[in-house]
Structures are given as C-alpha cells and as structure tokens.
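Help needed: design a sequence for this.
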C-alpha cells in the first residue's frame, strides 16, 4: 500500500537570508519526520521530500507562510516505503547548477507550456524538441522527437548549445526535464544567448505523466527520479527500473537478467570497469546488507 507522500518542489525567487532559513526549515522537517533533501540558494529553493500526508502538509504550510514560497512549483507522487534515509537542508550557489553566472531567472525566462498543450507543441515539425536531462536519464525514457544532448551533468548544457544549435536556424525550441527546474533555467540561458522562441514544459515530465493519460501520451519509456524508487511511469506509478549500487546506472529487467549483473556488486554497464578492490568492497557491503535483513534491520547503504 502506498502511504508515503513524495513531494518535489522548487521556485526561483530572490533569497537574501538563506543562512537564516536553513536551520528553521531543517527543524520543521525533522519535527514532522520528513526525509529528503532541500537546497537553498540566493536564487531560490529546490528539492524532494517524503513523509506522511500530515507531515508533508505541515512542512508545505510552514513554507507557504512565507510569501516568497506561497506559489511553489509543486508535485506529488507516492511510495510504499520511505525513499530517503535522512533529512538534509543544504546551502548552495545554485539550486540547479548550470555554471553560467549571467543567467537571471527574475530577468527573463522561456514560455511555460502546460502538459495539456505540450503534445501540440512538440508535434510541430518547426519545433526543435530537446531533453535537457543527463544521458543516463534520457536512456530510459523521453518524448518522441526529443534530442538527447548526451550530457553527464547539467553544467555541460551550455557547451551543447554553443556547439550544436544556432539561433538563426533553430527558431523554436521546446525543452523538458524531470520536474521543470532544469528546463526553466536552460530557457533563460538560451534567451540570453540569442534564441527567440523558447518554451518549456511546466512541472516537467512528472506533471505530464500525472495529468496525461497513457492513451494520449507522447512519452516513451519511464522517467528517472533521484530517490530509491529509480523511475516512475504513467500516473506516477512505480517503474520497472532499479539502480546499480556500483555505478548508479538505472537497470531494466533485461539488465538484471544479465550474467554480468549481481545485486549490490555489478551490472552490464560497469562489470568490465570495476577494480578487484571495488568488487571486494561491494561484496562486503552486500554481505552486511543480507545480515541486516536477516535481523529485520535496514542497512543504511541500501
């Protein structure tokens, strides 16, 4: 039974008091037995937290009491077990790292597109559809016609734009990402460097999967999420992927049936690259996990 609420939230808003906000926010989450990670920076807030219905509601109510957070970009899904180990509130330079200091979300950003209108936009042959997520995320699911920039981190996206895109040639750009935050920031960057029409999916893939029925969906595959669930699919139901402990790559059922897959030790994506010492260390960790499970406990590394 799914009784854990998983809440993903963000907002680009000027925060001059992030240091003062950190501890009260952490204490509010801990008091309500919430786990997950929230990032605070001068450009806003971002993160995913999980807990009971009552606990999540109390944290969101606490945030909403501050007028700067009253209209967070917010979405919920569910999990049958807690997908996080602990609660962290971290101070960062950016709530999502693009590494381009000239980008100001309060100055200019692309046009939001609601999930209900997204299909019409990306069906337009004049629109270049770009998935701004990392390569391993795109590998397990993306929108039809979406280009994979083949980045390993979001900070590589500006280089992709500079080397592969041309404002004179690519007149209309539509971008998507997991929850909307990366494509929102990417849209501001692209407008800054001269692109004219830039659109981004409001609420990201998660909001699209929540609202658009499978019979109408242009999404192919599953959507990677940064917690113990690994991936979700239409209706935000739990997906079929898991995560390799050794290399953190998402694993399909086919990957897990490979002779190179051994739970907690290796998978087809890393089997040939692991050193003897790494395999020895992972094997010891897996032994400890099995012993903890036999005692009815949960090993913190699982």
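Sure. Designed sequence:
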């Amino acid at each position: 039974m799914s009784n854990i609420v998983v809440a993903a939230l963000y907002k680009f808003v000027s925060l001059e008091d992030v240091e003062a906000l950190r501890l009260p926010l952490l204490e509010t989450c801990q008091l309500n037995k919430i786990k997950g990670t929230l990032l605070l920076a001068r450009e806003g807030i971002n993160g995913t937290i999980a807990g009971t219905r009552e606990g999540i509601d109390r944290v969101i109510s606490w945030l909403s009491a501050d007028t700067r957070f009253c209209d967070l970009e917010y979405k919920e899904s569910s999990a049958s077990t807690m997908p996080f180990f602990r609660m962290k509130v971290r101070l960062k330079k950016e709530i999502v790292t693009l590494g381009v200091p000239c980008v100001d979300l309060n100055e200019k950003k692309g046009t939001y597109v609601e999930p209900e209108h997204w299909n019409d936009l990306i069906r337009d042959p004049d629109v270049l559809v770009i998935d701004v997520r990392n390569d391993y995320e795109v590998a397990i699911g993306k929108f039809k016609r979406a280009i994979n920039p083949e980045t390993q981190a979001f900070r590589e996206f500006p280089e992709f734009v500079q080397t592969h895109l041309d404002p004179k040639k690519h007149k209309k750009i539509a971008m998507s990402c997991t929850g909307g935050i990366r494509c929102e920031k990417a849209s501001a960057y692209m407008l800054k460097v001269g692109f004219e029409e830039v659109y981004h999916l409001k609420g990201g893939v998660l909001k699209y999967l929540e609202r658009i029925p499978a019979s109408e969906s242009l999404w192919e595959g599953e959507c990677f999420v940064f917690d113990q669930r690994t991936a979700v699919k239409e209706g935000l139901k739990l997906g079929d992927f898991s995560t390799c402990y050794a290399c953190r790559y998402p694993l399909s059922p086919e990957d897990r049936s490979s002779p190179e897959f051994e739970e907690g030790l290796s998978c087809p994506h890393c089997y040939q690259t692991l050193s003897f010492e790494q395999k020895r260390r992972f094997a010891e960790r897996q032994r400890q996990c099995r012993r903890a499970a036999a005692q009815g406990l949960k090993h913190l590394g699982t």
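The longest helix spans residues 276-294.
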